[in-house]
């Protein structure tokens, strides 16, 4: 296949993209694991010795960037870029991918907290050698998640699929992407990023690797409930307009129900069976008011995204690198 023929000519250059935000407690722990895995892949001739671990500092306020610079000074396999300010997890991933795409053959994106199994990288590389341009890391269980997070996550994935979003169930942002896919993905200009929904839209042959998710090795998660809900809303509204069509359907149903109610009231009035009461009227007004406010909110979310897209602001700004940029 095409990838196999290419790999016979030269060893695959891999860049591991690791977004970081206030991870000074985690980095000294997981950096050794990343480096060990990278060296093992190099020794097995799976990847080239030119492969690197690229940390993306997402505007951290602690010593994260200082630690990244120290790691890069100790070992050339570590490199790093720093964003000018905090722009969010998805933009940090995008910055790393776009920075790496002209330097490597494949990238693997992974969080730095040690929860995603690093050992799955070798399976991803093997799948790439067999011809897969994208390899998704999928959790085979959610034992480490709380009951609330597990249930809400499962509902989210199902809802995304229901409204037409092409997402991989139980896949977050642990994936391998070939340079060929990144070249095409660079043409996607969305400001509102939801990478786990956008990458499948690029197409090309893909594969799946299942892994066990672990406990966080140190520190605490910076992904609050509010951020998770924000990502969920971005995913829903960025991938499909079906929510607006659902609103239209609800409006149509309410219209017919109201029309039936008007006929029923009119017939009752002719028969003299009407009973004055405020309870039923209050319930109807609250129901209609609630539907209207919900509808306005969803429509407003889409309008807000249109507003942001029309500005064409940069999705990331790199303020510093641990290496000289090669243009």
What's the arrangement of secondary structure elements?
Blueprint: H1 2-9, E1 14-20, H2 27-43, E2 52-57, H3 64-74, E3 78-83, H4 89-100, E4 106-109, H5 120-129, E5 134-139, H6 147-162, E6 171-178, H7 179-185, H8 195-202, E7 206-211, H9 225-239, H10 242-271, H11 279-311, E8 318-321
Parallel strand pairs: 1-2, 1-4, 2-3, 5-7
Antiparallel strand pairs: 3-8, 4-6, 5-6
Helix pairs in contact: 10-11
List keywords for this structure.
single chain, 327 residues, alpha/beta, Spore Coat Polysaccharide Biosynthesis Protein SpsA, Chain A, 2 domains, eight-stranded mixed beta sheet, 8 strands, disordered N terminus
Could you walk me through the main structural features you see in this protein, from its secondary elements to its overall organization?
This protein has eleven helices and eight strands. α10 (242-271) runs antiparallel to α11. It has an eight-stranded mixed sheet, with helices on both faces. The two termini are 31 Å apart. It has 327 residues and is α/β, with parallel strands linked by helices. α3 (64-74) links the parallel β2 and β3.
């Amino acid at each position: 296949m095409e990838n196999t023929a290419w790999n016979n000519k030269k060893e695959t250059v891999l860049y591991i993209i690791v977004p970081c935000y206030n991870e000074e407690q985690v980095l000294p722990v997981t950096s050794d694991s990343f480096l060990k895995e990278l060296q093992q892949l190099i020794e097995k001739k799976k990847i080239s010795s030119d492969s690197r671990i690229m940390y993306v500092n997402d505007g951290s306020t602690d010593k994260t960037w200082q630690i990244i610079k120290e790691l890069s000074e100790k070992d050339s396999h570590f490199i790093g870029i720093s964003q000018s300010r905090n722009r969010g997890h998805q933009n940090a991933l995008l910055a790393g991918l776009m920075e790496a795409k002209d330097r490597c053959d494949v990238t693997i994106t992974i969080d730095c907290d040690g929860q995603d199994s690093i050992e799955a990288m070798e399976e991803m590389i093997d799948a790439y050698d067999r011809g897969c341009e994208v390899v998704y890391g999928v959790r085979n269980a959610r034992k480490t998640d709380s009951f609330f997070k597990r249930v809400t996550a499962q509902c989210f994935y199902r809802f995304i699929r229901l409204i037409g979003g092409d997402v991989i169930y139980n896949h977050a942002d642990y994936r391998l992407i070939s340079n060929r896919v990144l070249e095409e993905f660079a043409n996607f200009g969305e400001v509102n990023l939801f990478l786990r929904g956008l990458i499948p839209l690029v197409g090309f042959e893909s594969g799946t690797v299942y892994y066990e998710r672990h406990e966080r090795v140190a520190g605490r998660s910076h992904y609050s409930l509010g951020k998770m809900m924000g990502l969920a809303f971005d995913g829903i509204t960025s991938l499909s307009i079906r929510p607006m069509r659902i609103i239209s359907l609800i409006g149509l149903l309410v219209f017919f129900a109201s029309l039936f109610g008007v006929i029923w009231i009119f017939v009752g009035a002719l028969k003299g069976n009407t009973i004055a009461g405020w309870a039923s009227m209050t319930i109807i007004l609250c129901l209609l008011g609630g539907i209207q406010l919900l509808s306005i909110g969803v429509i407003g979310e889409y309008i807000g995204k249109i507003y942001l897209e029309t500005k064409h602001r940069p999705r990331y700004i790199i303020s510093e690198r641990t290496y000289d940029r090669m243009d």
